[in-house]
Design goal:
The complex is a heterodimer of chains A (522) and B (106). Chain A folds into two domains: 310 residues, Cytochrome P450 (Cytochrome p450); 93 residues, Beta Barrel (Lipocalin), CATH 2.40.128. Chain A is 36% helix and 24% strand. Chain A is built from 17 helices and 22 strands. In chain A, the strands form six sheets. In chain A, strands 15-16-17-18-19-20-21-22 form an eight-stranded antiparallel barrel. Chain B has a single domain, classed as Ubiquitin-like (UB roll). Chain B is an alpha+beta fold. Classes of the chains: A alpha+beta (522), B alpha+beta (106). Chains A and B meet through α2, α4, α5 and α17 of A and α2 of B.
């Protein structure tokens, strides 16, 4: 069989719009794929992905689950448990599992329904509705705030600021950087809130985070520190906002293209839970995850060295024909069979019960108000990052379309993806920076120039470039300042250590707190 | 190979020739029994393999450990005979084990 033309690269924008034909070829023709340019392996068959995710000893998460992080040998605080192996992972995960429970999520179902109503009711009677701006960017963020017990008065302040920022010019996609700023803002001022909640305990997750004892990785029984709480909330809230937002976008797109199934669902809401599972299978918001291979192994006759990066293509294995008949077809009536969208093994998505609940309630509330819609692809924006694929903007016609409206054509504006690291070189040159922010990795490019003993340069991110200041090197310690203007005006201080071709440390983003970053020489 | 009877919430029965050494969850998932999801694959990390052990069998399967107790504490539709089926490894003595499944795993 000719395997010519098989190439899969997470940064290839041509594959963002429809990666599935390539996934099919990988599954059928090259079940173990190697990408030379970025030096990683990828597997795409269901059984292979399942076995790999279950083998936590052979496939490590100690340097994270994203290609760039593993390449950079990224290290995170113990409490960032998505980024750890046992026993560190076990200590924090088992604590969080006692706090993020299906029971707690289901207790807020009516509140989530009210959040959907608040977002959707003002749109009734109109002609258009954006699944992202009007629903996906709002409900998951508010649901997390609510579960954390952020008081209504603060939520209102956050909401008003969100609403002010969300106003977009007609016909223009919403600004994703802006959206992230909104999410960041929702998490800002957190320290203050934590202190207040400590004095005013309630039955919310924050109260439990403050008071529940756990056995830490050193075997000491204690409560979480403020830093640990902050890290955990950032990871959990960031992951929960972004992915559920994407799920709501895929709901809008997929049901727009399958009007018969949409009508079945509008008629019979009892079908919605299985439709959410099918949607999760068909368009997973997080299409792949990565692990580090801990010893040399052989797979499909090829040797994979210790230290290699293995990418598990969840979106590909979810359509494996040996498990899902007509896997490339969206069919809410198909025989129920578990998919791989939430992962498997000890790192399985801890927020799955909330995602399923939000997906179901959002679908019910949308269909109650808008049983019919058609996506306006001319104004829709699709993007991909190192961990998430989905719509930044997905407007749909829910009423009458203008007379001069032309048939929809698919849009695929793609956000820039960070490049992979390369060989070791001196300070001057280009560095790919990834800040692990509360809403996921934020890529930026740092360019450094040397003038005698002085290093100057500029940093680009969120579509703007600003000069850097105060660059210092003291032994391995590196420091610089970047005054950014987008998504908001802010001083960001980078403090890190250089190790070979990687600088890693913390980026302090004004009042928003500190986030880990890695900079890898391009 | 002991036979295990899985009963869906709608009453539909499935008899499985269970593999000894694998869990009650694995035996269900590998035989495509509807009603058991097992998102985490048996790591006691998701509570989507919830089942009700027939009262006659409650004392004959291995008891719950702390991890399972904690997961069940936060799970939905829990009864006194609720178990996470990934935590029960099938032995030859399990011939005739009966497991009823909840209305939904999430």
């Amino acid at each position: 069989m000719s395997t010519a033309g098989i190439s899969w690269d997470p940064y290839n924008q041509d594959l963002t719009k429809n990666p599935y034909p390539m996934y099919k070829r990988l599954r059928e023709e090259m079940p173990l794929y190697y990408n030379e340019e970025h030096d990683f392996y990828a597997i795409s068959r269901y059984a292979d992905v399942e076995a790999t995710l279950r083998d936590r000893d052979l496939f490590s998460s100690a340097h994270g689950d994203i290609l760039e992080f593993i390449k950079a040998k990224s290290v995170m605080p113990d409490s960032v448990f998505i980024h750890q192996d046992p026993p560190k992972h076990t200590a924090y995960r088992s604590l969080m599992q006692r706090i993020i429970t299906p029971k707690r999520m289901y207790a807020v179902e009516q509140d989530i329904r009210a959040l959907c109503a608040r977002s959707l009711d003002p749109l009734v009677g109109g002609d258009r509705f954006d699944f992202i701006a009007n629903l996906g960017a709002e409900v998951p963020m508010r649901a997390v705030s609510m579960l954390l017990g952020i008081p209504e008065k603060d939520q209102t302040a956050i909401r008003e600021s969100v609403d002010a920022r969300m106003r977009t010019e007609a016909g223009k996609p919403i600004d994703i950087a802006n959206q992230q700023a909104i999410q960041n803002e929702a998490l800002a001022g957190f320290e203050e809130y934590i202190s207040w909640r400590e004095k005013n305990p309630s039955d919310d997750m924050m109260t439990e985070l403050l008071h529940t004892e756990f056995k830490d990785p050193n075997g000491v029984t204690r409560k979480l520190t403020r830093d640990e709480i902050s890290n955990i909330v950032n990871v959990v809230a960031g992951a929960g906002n972004e992915t559920t937002n994407r799920l709501i976008g895929w709901m809008g797109k997929t049901l727009s293209e399958h009007p018969d199934q949409r009508r079945d669902l509008a008629k019979n809401h009892a079908l919605i839970p299985q439709a959410i599972e099918e949607l999760l299978r068909f368009e997973p918001p997080g299409p792949f995850v990565a692990r580090e291979v801990m010893r040399e192994i052989e797979l499909y006759g090829k040797k994979i060295p210790k230290g290699a990066v293995m990418i598990m293509l969840l979106a590909a294995c979810n359509r494996d024909e040996s498990r899902f008949v007509n896997g490339d077809t969206f069919n809410i009536h198909r025989e129920a069979r578990p998919h791989m969208t939430f992962g498997q093994g000890i790192h399985v998505c801890i927020g799955a019960p909330l995602a399923r609940l939000e997906g179901r309630v959002a679908m019910e509330e949308v269909l109650k108000r808008f049983p019919d819609w058609e996506v306006d692809y001319d104004n829709a924006v699709l993007s991909t990052t190192s961990s998430v694929r989905g719509w930044d903007s997905l407007p749909a016609w829910i009423g009458s379309k203008p007379k001069n409206y032309v048939a929809p054509k698919p849009a695929a504006a793609v956000a820039p993806a960070p490049a992979a690291p390369a060989a070791e070189v001196p300070l001057e040159g280009t560095w790919n920076v990834v800040v692990k922010g509360p809403t996921g990795p934020q890529p930026a490019v740092l360019t450094l120039e040397r003038n005698g003993n002085t290093i100057t340069g500029a940093q680009s991110g969120a579509g703007t470039t600003t000069p850097i200041a105060d660059f210092k090197r003291d032994g391995n310690a590196i420091y610089w300042v970047n005054h950014i203007t987008k998504p908001m005006k802010m001083k960001v201080e980078f403090k890190g250590e250089i190790n070979g071709n990687v600088i890693s440390g913390k980026a302090k983003a004004g009042f928003m707190g500190s986030y880990p970053f890695t900079a890898t020489k391009a | 190979m002991p036979k295990i009877l899985y009963i869906e919430h709608n009453g539909k029965e499935h008899v499985v020739d269970a593999e000894v050494g694998k869990s009650v969850m694995q035996n269900a998932v590998e035989n495509l029994i509807p009603g058991i999801v097992g998102d985490c694959g048996g790591a006691c990390s998701c509570a989507t393999c919830h089942g009700y052990i027939d009262p006659a069998w409650e004392d004959k399967v291995e008891p719950k450990n702390d991890g399972e107790e904690a997961m069940l504490d936060g799970a939905l539709r829990v009864e006194s005979n609720s178990r996470l089926t990934c935590q029960i490894v099938v032995t030859a003595d399990h011939e005739g084990l009966v497991v009823r499944l909840p209305a939904s795993q999430f």
